[in-house]
């Protein structure tokens, strides 16, 4: 059953999300004043990110969409800029190289939670529902699931001890099963591409053989998980047009080439798909289904060039790094780049969170922080409460003369 878009709760109506951004911004401001090295770390961030943010904001000014500045519309530019701000928030909260490991673990936990939810939902429907039977965008959920699977693959090969490897493999099996049930083929291909690129570091002695083994294992897992439903879906879908995507791409490029030199250079403005595609496409296809085409249509050749420059800049920074989790960073970037061929993901939170976390970890590697803002773990929280309670009791005893100061 398709999700009723009119019944969806806007993110601005959720108190948690409305409070989360101000809290994170306050945290950013506190670190900015307390840690002098943050400004030098920001200088090391890719300048193309700021250029991409500026281009995105400028495209809203000349957009052919009337929703660009409509704050009641889910397609307004403010929402996109807030999501892009997550890059800054994520990067600025990395204060030590090891913090990136915590980000990777958080991605795994999120992936595991979503996969368990997908498995539970599908099991209730006797595993017969189309794409897991969930009433949420399956590609969006798969993006989170498979992003968490990438560090799992890395630690599966790098961890020592049979018990640890077995535990990681069990978690990875749950995550891959959950992602496979959603049948987001473009994201599964992107995940496979990330694994192939990670192979030389995972199996340094025999990278070619390792790549073949990983590729075969991935294919066997997919065939085993999908079995008949996989073949049925391939038979029911028009693979010659990539499930209708090539029709959208051809129509969009034709519209751009027929629009004149100015439009080709600067595009149709932010969120142009909601204006250009409805006259020729059915509801549900009002999306370019390609990150790079989306950049071209909205920002023209200028917008696409800035987007590509940003992704290339991120890749070059990671390749030059000596971070212990460099391979995970490479996997995430390849995953995002390949996933962008079949979908538009720059409007999702995880897109900017992952890239921001990578940027922050690389910046801290070059410019270490001057302060150490330790996370408030449950143990430290207990000790702080315990100390606070003892001080209150002591003050009360002194006030009543039962304890000599």
List keywords for this structure.
disordered N terminus, mainly alpha, 70% helix, 405 residues, single chain, 2 domains
Provide a brief overview of the structure:
With 405 residues, the protein is mainly alpha-helical. It contains 16 helices and no strands.
Descriptive report:
It is a single chain. The chain has 405 residues and is an all-alpha fold. The chain has two domains: 22-373, no CATH class; 377-405. It is built from 16 helices and no strands. α5 packs across α6 (138-158), α5 (99-124) crosses α7 (162-182) and α6 packs parallel to α8 (185-202). The termini are far apart.
Topology:
Layout (H helix, E strand, L loop, with lengths): L14 H20 L2 H8 L2 H15 L15 H16 L6 H26 L13 H21 L3 H21 L2 H18 L4 H30 L8 H13 L3 H6 L6 H4 L14 H30 L5 H14 L9 H18 L11 H22 L6
Approximate helicity band: 55-70%
Give the number of helices. Answer: 16
Structural class: mainly alpha
- Beta content: under 5%
Largest β-sheet summary: none
First-to-last CA distance? 71 Å
